[in-house]
Amino acid sequence: MTVPKRSPCPVASMLDILGDKWTLLVVRDLLMGKQTYKALQDSPEGIPSNILAERLKRLEAEGILHKERYQANPVRYHYRLTDKGKELSDVMQVMVKWGNKHIAGTYTPAQIKQFIQQITG
Q1: From CA 5, how far away is CA 12, in angstroms rounded?
Q2: Which of the four CATH numbers 1.10.10.10, 1.10.357.10, 3.40.50.980, 3.30.70.1400 does domain 10-120 have?
Q3: Which of 7, 17, 67, 106 could be 77's S-S partner, Cβ–Cβ 3.0 to 4.6 Å?
């Protein structure tokens, strides 16, 4: 279990792990079924490769995802959410609901699914 870094407040502690502009997008993509570095990097938001690598390491260190090697030469990994990471699905659903209500032009859950299916084949 993670020890609070700056405050025992659960919101501050969660933000210490997930509170930048990229990390929850990586979690979103993992929740939507993406599993490889390339698939994560190909997301429409265009996460820079150095930031993606750092976020994957951080999420693994926090026990939110685990990686499993699927190719030896060159070494390549599948990334999958742990049970702890999968529990973020509830958080993401609330964020989608809020965004749909308060931000014009955002994708509905059905549109998100359709969009992900289109980009993942």
Answers
A1: 9
A2: 1.10.10.10
A3: 67
Decide if 57 contacts 40 (C-beta within 8 A).
Answer: no
| pTM (predicted TM-score) | 0.87
Sequence-distant (6+) residues with CB within 8 A of 35 are 78, 79, 80
Contact 90, 27 (CB under 8 A): no
Q: Are strands 76-81 and 65-71 parallel, antiparallel or unpaired?
A: antiparallel
100 half-sphere exposure, CB direction, 13 A CA radius: 12
Instruction: Give the confidence band of 120 by pLDDT, cuts at 50, 70, 90.
Output: low
Half-sphere exposure of residue 87, counting CA atoms within 13 Å on the CB side? 5
Q: Tell me: the pLDDT tens digits for 10-59? A: 999 999 999 999 999 999 999 989 999 999 999 889 999 999 999 999 99
Q: Is the separation of the CB atoms in 52 and 46 below 8 Å?
A: no
